Structure formats: C-alpha cells, structure tokens
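Example record used in the benchmark description.
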Amino acid sequence: MRLSALRSFVSDPLLAGPAPVADQRAHPVVEAILRRREEGSTPGARRDSMRIVLAIEGGGMRGVVSAGMAAAIEQLGLTDCFDEVHGASAGAFNGAFLLAGQAAYVASLYAHGFGNPAFTGVRRVLRGGPVFNLDYVIGEVWRTQRPLRTDTILGRGIELHCTATDVDRAALVDLAELGSDEEIRLALRASARLPWLAGPPVAFRDMRLLDATLAEAIPVASAMSRATHVLVLQTRPHGVTHTPLSGAVARLTDRYLGGHNPELVRLRQTRSERYDALSAQLQARSADATAMPAVCVIRPPAGARSIGQMENRLSALQAAGAVGMRAAWAALTGDDPELVGVPRAYTRSQTRREAPGDLAPEGVADPPRTAVGVEGL
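Model output (structure tokens):
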C-alpha cells in the first residue's frame, strides 16, 4: 500500500455554508422575470412593455460569485427573460458567457485561471509584461481552448453592455451595440483592464479605456436609465464593505493613473466610499416596492466568506461560486439546492444551445455542470 493513500481527502467545497438569502419570488422584479418564463416570452416577441435588465458586478476573481449566480439563472431557464445584460469587469465576462449559453462553463473556469493558469506568472512580469494577461485569455483561451460562443451572443436578441472607464474624461462609459466577435472581445478587454496590472488602456471607438470599477463597480447607472426592472447580482456578502487598496499598491496605482489623467486618481481614492453608498442605495431601493425602476438585489448572505479579487485557491473559488449559485437559486425559487460538481459536455460544433435549465423539472435543482474534464463549481 502506498503511503499517499493515507492522505486526507479534500473537503467538498460545495457543501452547504451559511443559509442563502431569503425567498424573493414576491419581489416585483422576480415576479416579472418568472411571469415571462411562464408565458414563454422571448426576445423580439414580448407580450409586455417591460424592459428587464440584468446588472452583474465582477471584482476580479471574486466574479466567480456572480458567475455562480448567472449559472443559476441559466439553469432555471431565465436567460431569455432579460432584454439587456450589463456587466462590469469580470461581471462583463459573466454576462457574455450567460448570453452564449455558457454561464456554468465560465463559473468553472475561474478556478483554473479563466481556463488557463498561464494568464498570470512571474516570468512575464520579469520580461516587462502585465501581471494579468487578459488579452491572452480573451483573445486566445476563449477563442481556441475554451471558446466563448460570440455567434450565439450576436444572435440571441438580448443586448450586451460592458461598462468601462474613459481615461481622458475620467468617466463611466457604456459599451453597447456590439456587432461582431471582435467588438465583443474588445469590450470585454476594456471592461477588465486593471490599471497597470493588466496592461495599457484599451483603444476602442476613439477612446482609451480602463477597468469599469474605477468609475462604477456595480453597473447600474446605464441600466437604471433604460429599464423598468433591474436585477442586480452583487459579489460581496451582506454587511461586507469595499476595502481600499493597501498603501504600496495604492501608491503604485495612483502614480500610474496620474500619468494618464490626474482625475483618475480622484476616482480611485473615492471608490470605496462611492461603492458603499451605491450598495446601500440599491439595498434601500430593493426594499421599496414603489421604486421606479424596480430594483432587486441578490448577494451572498451575511456570514458567507468574502474572497479577494486575486484569489487563486481552487477550493475557495469553487466554494464562492457555490455560494453565489445557492443565493440566486434561493432568491428565484425559494429553495436551497444541493450542489454537486460533475463534467458537462459542450459540443464544439454547436453554436446555439438550450440553457441547461430548459431540460430540468421545475423546482428541481440539477447539479451545476461544466465542460468535460473541468471540475465543478
């Protein structure tokens, strides 16, 4: 018998943690979404005058939380109930994969460096490259290794909006009307271009663009100006506030931003205060049945572990994705599901798939499923 057989097994990161958020089926936003599903409403063939928007927060690797939430929406067959999907930073990644019918797919990729751990590494930094090479992820990994089905996004009939920060105006910009594979990938790159860590600003539509979270981490400004109903997916648990950058990282970031536009430094320095104020405002609107537009917030429960934007531990990322999925599932169905991670096959030649939830009995939680050979949430 090999001595390695005496090692302890790894704990299951998908086992239940803190109880999920409350059942929100009676909330006007969730009621509207579920009504559309019951009616078989699809983009381009609506029977109502509502405009329902999904807004997805990211936060680097913490975006796995909202990826798990998006996977719940996909599995429950609710994707086509939305008219627009807005995403910030990693939230834009999650929104794109949701519209591609691949939300569970991307939820599993976080634990493996968005599909390939080579996107970050010391050697690249020593050669003068970025700490995080998201150009490689979006342009290579998500094109040839773990392909994002942009053709499905373009044919879905639901608008994808990726927010970013305009370097020269030090202001939020909404990247919409994305009409090609190249435009979608450029918008994703711009939305997640972390200052100095991920490379220089992205040039797109005569703008120089950086990460959305400098201007707005929760992408609701444009969404609320256009919608009658907004479902917001947040990644920090209830009661957890925004943590400012540490001293050394803050100084490096401010030096970098100041070299492009001094107003960007002010955005960075006020980001935590603005985030917490917006989060409180959204929570208040979510509790106000008379608010217009109607806003519903789904976020992890108080007591859930909050992971950082540079988290890289497999079990922590899997557990965070599971927390997100449970929170969304409970809010949208009233049930706390049991989660297991199993492989799921994605046919390489198929460009338009039905969401996994379309095949599931109503109210029954199928396990979160992923691409073949990739571990579950």
